[in-house]
Design a protein that fits this description.
Blueprint: H1 32-36, E1 39-42, E2 46-51, E3 54-59, E4 63-64, E5 67-68, H2 72-86, E6 94-102, E7 105-114, H3 122-127, H4 133-149, H5 154-158, H6 162-176, H7 186-201, H8 204-212, E8 216-218, E9 228-231, E10 234-237, H9 245-248, E11 249-251, H10 252-265, H11 269-283, H12 289-312, H13 318-335, E12 339-344, H14 351-362, E13 365-368, H15 369-376, H16 398-417, E14 422-425, H17 431-443, E15 447-454, H18 457-470, H19 479-486, E16 496-499, H20 505-516
Parallel strand pairs: 12-14, 12-15, 13-14, 15-16
Antiparallel strand pairs: 1-2, 2-3, 3-7, 4-5, 6-7, 8-11, 9-10
Length: 517
């Protein structure tokens, strides 16, 4: 949402951010030949004049849902805020605020900046196909230092709750409403809005946890590759949002995903992914994948709304850009979906192999009923081998099984609320437990998938015997328990059947991934 501005050399300067900047390089002192050679660039909210080694940014007297620059005093205040806030990251680029006069009469104000080399924009490097990773590593380091020292408060945190994010989305929807069906695809828009509401509705624990861990601060708010300059003495990061505190306050994940989205848009998705990994590793702040995808979608959609406004002002290429960004937002919202996956079946059917392989393929969390049973132990202090002499005895008694499934679903609910998709590896013989899992998916606004692994009885028995001999698995089930369970297994018509006798483990995982898609 901020403007793009650049400048030439980086020289230290101690100009106060609110000082008058006129003298030899003030705009009113420019010669006619200099003005005639000026490069003029317009955005939806500003006009920029590139003159010599300076850039002068003049606000337009416009009003949108997110800003109101109709009065000169509001434009002056915004200029002063731009300089002060951007000096947090680029103190020697933002020189101050100039008074624009005509025949001695004050008519407006302009931000004055050093002009940076256009060919050293990160976006320019991306378009030329240069290696972005060394520069993005420097950007990650600079942002971590910036975020560490950034201001934090309860007021700032209030702008990063689930309700605050929902309100920001709604404001963007209000901005794009006039363009749906003309610039933005109507079917895609309907899907976008449904995904947004569903994801936010189930993630309050995640937002609360991010705030509690200090991950919300007064950040940049508009990290774009056009506004990052890759210079011999390091990177310069310009043009944060100054006209709205709400749009600048937020999760550090929201800040860095904005740049990752922009790098992806420019055709470098691998570099974008590695930048995110770099930031998380260096800051020791692992983001849930679904949070990354949701914020990436939000940033893409914000840019789409701005492109719509620019298109209405007649900007070349803005219509196509808006459409591209809308599709990028939809792609990431689909990938942001939180999943609850049930993988069940009789002992020896291959469900643990499938659940483990699926977790490897997706990065999702696996929760196993066998591990929970081991954690709980035997309430009756049954110390016989395996904790049981048969099905529905010892640790297979109905009340113990109920406790195991209740804990399995409780742990799953924690994962889902934190934006982590979960794979639940259990037999799921009793339909009442599946009903409870479906209720959990509804309650946490998560997408449910159900898989039932099957294998012929003789093959399942052989698998069980082998693992009991070599102690390769913590499952306590015996072939006898498996046969008893088969007689009480409730019908499971809604599950996708995975035949582990006919498929290799890799093929079984591929089938499950296809079904999830």
């Amino acid at each position: 949402m901020a403007d793009t501005a650049g400048g030439a050399s980086r020289e230290p300067d101690g100009v106060d951010p609110t000082a008058r900047v006129d003298g030899a390089r003030g705009p009113e002192a420019l010669s006619g030949s200099e003005v005639s050679k000026a490069l003029v660039v317009e955005t939806h909210i500003s006009t920029l004049f590139f003159v010599g080694d300076r850039v002068f940014k003049l606000r337009k007297p416009v009003e949108f849902g997110f800003l109101d620059f109709r009065s000169r005093s509001s434009r002056q205040e915004d200029c002063e805020r731009e300089v002060a806030l951007n000096r947090r990251l680029a103190p020697d680029v933002y020189l101050g605020v100039a008074d624009l006069t005509m025949e001695g009469r004050l008519i407006d104000h302009m931000v004055v900046m050093r002009r940076m080399p256009q060919d050293r924009r990160l976006a320019a490097l991306a378009r030329r196909g240069e290696d972005l990773e060394p520069w993005l590593h420097q950007v990650a380091e600079a942002l971590i230092a910036f975020h560490d020292r950034a201001q934090r408060s309860s007021e700032i945190s209030a702008d990063a709750t689930d309700m605050a994010l929902r309100a920001l989305w709604q404001e963007s929807f209000d901005e794009t409403d006039p363009f749906v069906g003309s610039i933005l695809d109507g079917h895609d828009e309907t899907e976008i809005r449904a995904h947004v509401e569903r994801w936010i509705a189930g993630r309050r624990p995640l937002f609360d946890a991010r705030i509690a861990s200090g991950r919300v601060c007064d950040g940049h708010g508009d990290l774009q590759a056009e506004d990052i300059f890759c210079l011999d003495d390091g990177v310069q990061i310009l043009d944060c949002i100054e006209f709205s505190d709400r749009l600048r306050h937020g999760d550090v994940c929201a800040d860095v995903t904005f740049l990752a989205m922009d790098i992806e848009r420019l055709g470098h998705p691998g570099a974008a992914d590695r930048f995110l990994v770099d930031y998380q590793r260096l800051s020791d702040d692992p983001f849930p994948d679904t949070l990354v995808h949701h914020y990436t979608a939000f940033r893409a959609y914000v840019r789409a709304s701005v492109a719509c406004l620019r298109s209405a002002q007649g900007a070349d290429g803005a219509r196509e850009e808006a459409s591209q960004l809308q599709k990028l937002a939809l792609d990431h919202l689909r990938r942001a979906r939180v999943r609850l996956v049930l993988v069940g079946g009789l002992p020896g059917c291959g469900k643990t192999t499938l659940a483990t392989g699926l977790a490897t393929a997706t990065g999702w969390t696996v929760l196993r009923s066998d591990e929970i049973r081991e954690q709980i132990g035997d309430p009756a202090n049954d110390t016989s081998p395996g904790g049981a002499t048969g099905y529905r005895e010892g640790r297979y008694r109905p009340e113990v099984m109920a406790t195991v499934y209740e804990e399995l679903l409780r742990q799953a609910e924690q994962c889902l609320g934190l934006g982590q998709s979960a794979i639940l590896d259990a037999s799921w013989t009793d339909d009442s437990w599946r009903v409870a899992a479906r209720s959990l998916a509804d309650r946490t606004c998560s997408d449910l998938a159900e898989f039932r692994c099957e294998a012929p009885p003789h093959l399942a028995a052989d698998r069980i015997d082998r693992r009991l001999v070599d102690h390769s698995d913590m499952s306590e089930a015996t072939p006898e328990i498996g046969r008893a369970m088969s007689r009480t297994f409730d019908a499971w018509p809604g599950a996708t059947v995975v035949d582990t006798a006919a498929l290799s483990p890799d093929d079984a995982v591929a089938q499950a991934v296809d079904a999830l898609s």
